[in-house]
Structure formats: C-alpha cells, structure tokens
Amino acid sequence: EAGVVQSPRYKIIEKKQPVAFWCNPISGHNTLYWYRQNLGQGPELLIRYENEEAVDDSQLPKDRFSAERLKGVDSTLKIQPAELGDSAVYLCASSPESGEEQYFGPGTRLTVT
Amino acid sequence: DAKTTQPNSMESNEEEPVHLPCNHSTISGTDYIHWYRQLPSQGPEYVIHGLTSNVNNRMASLAIAEDRKSSTLILHRATLRDAAVYYCIRGTSYGKLTFGQGTILTVHP
After folding, report:
1. What DSSP string runs through A29-97?
2. Which pLDDT tens digit goes with each residue over A77-91?
3. Of the partner residues A4, A43, A95, the one whose CB lies closest to the CB of residue B99
C-alpha cells in the first residue's frame, strides 16, 4: 500500500513569491493534517480536515496561508506571499479517522531566500 | 503550556534496553500519550500510544505512571535503526497531537 505522497520534496523561492504544496493521503483515510516543522523543533499542526471540511484551522496564519481539500482526497497548502520565516518542512499526514494513528509523508522542505 | 518534557538526548548501546522518559504533569484526563519517532529527512512514524494502562506492541512498550503525570517508552533491544528523534506527545481523543522537541536517541554499535 502506498504511503502519503507529497510533492515537491524541495522548493526554493524568493520572498514575496507564492508557493504551493500537494498531498495525496493514503486511500480511504478520511482525516488529513498539515504540519509545519521548524529546524530542531517538533511538528506543529496547521490544519486538520475531516473529509472536505477544515475542522481545526486555528493555527493556520490566514493572512497568507490557505488550504483546500477538494472531494475529500488530495489537498493543497498555499502560501502567498512567502516570507523568510516560512522556511521549514511542511508535513502532510493522514489517518483513517480522527484520533487514530497518523501516517506522515516525507515532507516538503521550503527555503525562502 | 500543553507540551511534554523530555531529555534533549540519550545514548544506548546496541541490543540493550532503552528507557525514554517523559513528563506530562498537566495532561488532562481524556488526553492520550503518544510516541512517534522521526528519522532524518523523513516524516514522523507512529510507535505506540496509551491512556492509562501499560501498552505493548511489536515496536515497544509504554509504561504510564498511575497518576499519569509521566510515562516511559521502552525499547527492549535497541538496534542501530532505532536511532531517531523520539517525541512524547499529548493527543486529544480526536487526534490533535501537540509535539514537543523530542529526545535524540543515539545507538552505539
């Protein structure tokens, strides 16, 4: 069974540019999570989806970050415009239902110059 | 703060048991204790979780203190592949995980 797929794996952009990350969760997993992991820190939840609905986006900086999960499968996380402080690894995870074991993708390493 | 407290680093020798401690003195009665580990350039990987009782699975054991203010992850025989950052995490019943900084485990051959 394929795991959580993320692309791209690496992205380098200049500040003020837009960037988007894509996530394909494990088939059949209803819950999808986006995390941000700064260097030397643990991941921090940005947003949690149950099917198409964003049920927890309290930690998402809504002035520049947006996310969507159309049809309750794939998801896209966007940053516009990017700032230097956005440099981090962006992780996507999925679970069959909320509260169950989370399966993480390899992450997208974003560098903003 | 709802995060847990763990030592920054620990070392072990291959094939010896490893006990990774965690303090979570402010944990609520309904929060679970999760352990995930993360290898370099990979996403975190689930290890084990529990609520009140000790738990065992193929990867590890989780010993939870009776007052739930602390817990210990036990790797029965460490291998080189167990070298990773181990996160002790509070998790709500609906799956919100609050990661701390984790413990860097080094395993010596």
Report:
1. --EEEEEEE-TTS--EEEEEEETTEEEE-TTS-TTTEEEE-GGGS-EEEEESS--GGG-EEEEEEEESS
2. 999 999 999 999 999
3. A43
